[in-house]
Design goal:
By secondary structure, the protein is mainly alpha-helical. It contains 14 helices and no strands. Helix 1 crosses helix 3 and helix 3 runs antiparallel to helix 5. Pathway: Porphyrin-containing compound metabolism; heme O biosynthesis; heme O from protoheme: step 1/1.
């Protein structure tokens, strides 16, 4: 993830306690700041897509230590990517209300320390996966990390409104890593689930960006909701949501699931489509801004992905 070494002097959110340079902080505060660099809530979402794929690959319970090592070192890999992203985006984080509480924006961690921390986590995660799982899983994890840092964070994010479409490829990699961790190879089933996450990512991210449009505009990040009309954003979200649902149903014939999975996938998909079309309905009714309630779809899409992958895991136990 990427470059500059000057401490942020951005204003802090109301209610936040600014860090005073030179002030003594407890070990707990320091640890908390470094953990925050890894963006634990984002890591949770990545793990939700990793473990169920391991069940699918094993056609039941995956080997315990393979699963544990994949999740532990996968967590370190994602933490590395996120810490390096915080280093690269510290100027953006300081300019956005939503991210002003992050450690670098509040001067809780020196930028150089964050850079070193991210690199060390990346090295440990790659070696850990290679030595305890297999080198295919390690290579895929390293590729995802490098793509997120070098391609998304350093190039795409600040240059194109399609940043999250192609940058989202890194977030799709955990399904390949989980499968490779169990089987030592790749197959069409994880590729289908890779596609699900790929198509799911843009509308999920765009609806969040609709809510924080002014933030992204102030930080000069050309997210689609910043540079396009709300109608266009919602129309593209509808297209990607349909692609997500259709791709999810492909897993049934490709992986040979039981009837449980396609039923759950169809129900969840119908609910997701209903919500995104309701969003278009509000656009057609002339509503705009916060009145569109884009966060309804954002929160539902989180639940959709978690429940869909839970269905993958449960179905795998029934085969």
């Amino acid at each position: 993830m990427v470059l500059t070494d000057k401490q942020s002097t951005a204003p802090h959110e109301p209610g936040a306690t600014p860090h005073t340079p030179g002030a003594t902080r407890s070990l707990g505060d320091v640890v908390k700041a470094y953990v925050a660099l890894t963006k634990p809530r984002i890591i949770e979402l990545l793990l939700i897509t990793t473990l169920p794929v391991m069940f699918l690959a094993a056609k039941g319970l995956p080997p315990l230590w393979t699963a544990v090592n994949t999740l532990v070192f996968g967590t370190l890999s994602a933490g590395s990517a996120n810490a390096l992203n915080c280093y690269i985006d510290r100027d953006i984080d300081a300019a956005m209300r939503r991210t002003r509480r992050r450690p670098l924006a509040r001067d809780l961690v020196p930028p150089t320390n964050a850079l070193i921390f991210g690199i060390v986590l990346g090295v440990l995660s790659t070696l850990g996966l290679g030595l305890t799982v297999n080198w295919l899983a390690a290579g895929l994890s390293l590729a995802a990390n490098l793509f997120y840092v070098l391609v998304y964070s350093m190039i795409l994010k600040r240059r194109t409104s399609q940043n999250v479409v192609w940058g989202g490829l890194a977030g799709c990699m955990p399904v390949l890593i989980g499968w490779a961790g169990v089987t030592g190879r790749l197959d069409w089933a994880p590729v289908v689930l890779f596609g699900v996450v790929f198509f799911w990512t843009p509308p999920h991210t765009w609806t969040l960006a609709m809510r924080y449009k002014e933030d992204y505009a102030a930080a000069k990040v050309p997210m689609l909701p910043v540079v396009a009309t709300e109608r266009r954003v919602v129309m593209e979200s509808i297209v990607y949501t349909w692609a997500t649902v259709l791709c999810s149903l492909l897993l049934w014939p490709v992986a040979g699931t039981t009837a449980l999975y396609p039923v759950v996938a169809a129900v969840l998909g119908a609910a997701c489509l209903w919500e995104v079309h309701r969003l278009m309905g509000r656009v057609n009714a002339g509503k705009t801004g916060v009145d569109l309630r884009p966060m309804r779809f954002f929160h539902w899409s989180n639940a959709y992905l978690a429940l869909l992958f839970l269905a993958v895991a449960i179905d795998s136990m029934l085969v």
